[in-house]
UniProtKB/TrEMBL annotation:
Name of this chain's protein: Isoprenyl transferase
Transmembrane segments: none
Family: Belongs to the UPP synthase family.
Coiled-coil annotated residue ranges, if any: none
Length: 245
């Protein structure tokens, strides 16, 4: 990075969560089909993964397809799945070269078998990498994640292997799909929308929210650095009095 980097010596986030948004509007503004926006959006993912790795942030989780996105036209869903396949085919070798671990959260059972196989292969081939863990949330919903965790714990209780009184926030977090990862320190959403859209509901309890007016396909490496610099300027209090930490 050059001398113009906005990053300070304050702590970096350990985990950045991203809601990429605005692909459709980007395409619409150019008189193009929504797919064109998604295609450029995939390029933006590439840039963001790269910059997050360069900054030395160890966890990045990107919302790729929500449990609610099935409401979109079948043709758009097909395009998105096609792009995902192409992204994995062209990008996993590069991720591996850069010591990036790729993994998926969400209910993948609704994806096609060949895509499920490709996801599993991509996870397996990068499982030993340690510089950055890049998690893609597919057919993911925060509420579904919480419900699934409750079911998992309830099964243990029913089996007699878990005392209900032993369930605390840490135990519950360990039953979520993000078990083993630190909670996101910051959540970035592009396109000017200011909502969480059922992303990592439990995990973002104390995430710093950074909303950018840019549309996702316009997201550049410097935008990532600027968002991280914005995070560094925030005072995180976790309920304590101002200035007490
Ligand atoms: C984000 O862009 C990509 C996905 C949700 C997969 P959108 O497709 O939501 O773009 P807008 O919000 O319609 O502009
Ligand atoms: C959230 O974006 C889902 C993903 C980024 C994958 P949406 O565009 O689907 O969210 P809403 O509908 O505007 O809340
Ligand atoms: Mg959107």
């Amino acid at each position: 990075m050059d001398g113009t980097s906005p990053i300070s010596d304050k702590p970096l986030p350990r985990h950045i969560a991203v809601i990429m948004d605005g692909n459709g509007r980007w395409a619409h503004a150019r008189g193009k089909p929504r797919t064109a926006g998604h295609r450029q959006g995939a390029e933006a993912v590439r840039r963001v993964v790269e910059r997050v790795g360069e900054l030395g942030v160890p966890y990045l989780t990107v919302f790729g397809f929500s449990a609610e996105n099935w409401k979109r036209p079948a043709s758009e869903i097909e395009d998105l799945m096609w792009l995902l396949r192409r992204y994995l085919q062209s990008e996993v070798a590069e991720l591996h070269k850069n010591d990036v671990r790729f993994q998926v959260i969400g209910d993948r059972s609704r994806l096609t078998h060949d895509l499920q196989r490709l996801l599993a292969d991509s996870e397996a081939s990068t499982a030993g990498n340690g510089r950055l863990t890049f998690t893609l949330a597919l057919n993911y919903g925060g509420r579904q994640d919480i419900v699934e965790a409750a079911r998992r714990l309830a099964r243990e209780v029913a089996a007699g292997t878990l005392d209900p009184e032993a369930i605390d926030a840490e135990r519950f977090g360990g039953a979520l799909s993000t078990a083993g990862m630190p909670d996101p320190d910051m959540l970035i959403r592009t396109s000017g929308e200011q909502r969480i859209s059922n992303f990592l509901l439990w995990q973002c309890a104390y995430a710093e929210m950074v909303f950018l007016d840019k549309l996702w396909p316009d997201m550049g490496k410097d935008d990532v650095s600027r968002a991280v610099a914005e995070y560094q300027r925030r005072e995180r209090r976790y309920g304590a009095a101002v200035g007490s930490r």
